[in-house]
Amino acid sequence: MIFKIFLLVIFCVAGCSSSKVKKDIRTPSSVELPQCLTDCSKDQVCMNTFTEKGAACAVIPEGPEISFALPFDSNTEVVCTHSKGTGSHSGANAFYALDLATDYNKPASIVRASADGVAFVFMGEDGNLCPEPAGTSAKSEVSTCGQSWGNHIRILHSQGYMSFYVHLERPLIKNGAFVHKGDPIGIEGRTGAAGHRHLHWSIQKLSGTTTADWIKHISWAGESVPFQFEANPNGENHIFSSAEVSCAHVGIGEVDATLQPHFKGIK
User: Fold this and answer.
1) Dihedral, 83, 31, 218, 3 alpha carbons, nearest 10
2) Where are the domains of the chain?
3) Contact (CB, 8 A) for 45 and 85
4) Could you tell me if 120 and 164 are in contact, meaning their C-beta atoms sit under 8 angstroms apart?
5) Which of 21, 144, 198, 243 is the most exposed place for a label (fewest CB within 10 A)?
6) How far is CA 213 from the centre of its chain?
7) For residue range 137-147, what is the model confidence (pLDDT) as tens digits?
8) Is 2 exposed, middle or buried (0-12, 13-18, 19+ CB in 10 A)?
9) What distances in angstroms separate CA 103 from CA 107, 113, 134, 208, 244, one per listed residue?
10) How is domain 2-31+65-264 classified at the CATH fold level?
11) Largest Cα–Cα distance in the chain?
């Protein structure tokens, strides 16, 4: 309760970056996988360091003891198109992230808060919305707007954990608002370096041990951590782990649909 009251008075200035559009097309599988020189132990993963060292073994971080929910409605079916440790999810800030997409032929879906917390809204240059790049929902140009995350929202929870909602068409909440699990926060989109319409969703641990530390680092991506979430894949609510969900790392319809996990929001 103290955490909630304290956070209600905190406001953040949104981070900005160039909205220049790159003249290339990115598909979900266009980034190479990391290659470690030695086999990692059972409590380690092979993670891209983005340095001259390339990939290296890293200890699996501890996840939060927070009950997260799939950030979509119970009547919205989403397909997981990208899971842990592959391609653009091979680095420390996105290793356990999930890319979740809805039917490209249907209107974009509402994105909902996966847990209670304070929301921080980030867009493009001068606080303006990042525009959706040229192309289609299935395949589009990429942009560096919003630090390449496009329009995105970070929700600060307890103990310095933050849920991250990326590539939104637009936010539906104001910066600094306290949100409850299930509240609508944005519209699914393809802004920034998305390549196709989807929600990049992850849980990150921010640096530091105090609220002041976490606020200081809120505009930067923290360390991606494995997390558990509740979803409804077949009419019943179940608990899943982002470390165990395995997705085909391709767009909707590019492989047999049975290879791509399907979820719905909890009832």
Assistant:
1) 10
2) 2-31+65-264
3) yes
4) no
5) 21
6) 22
7) 999 999 999 99
8) exposed
9) 8, 21, 19, 39, 24
10) Glucose Permease (Domain IIA) (2.70.70)
11) 49
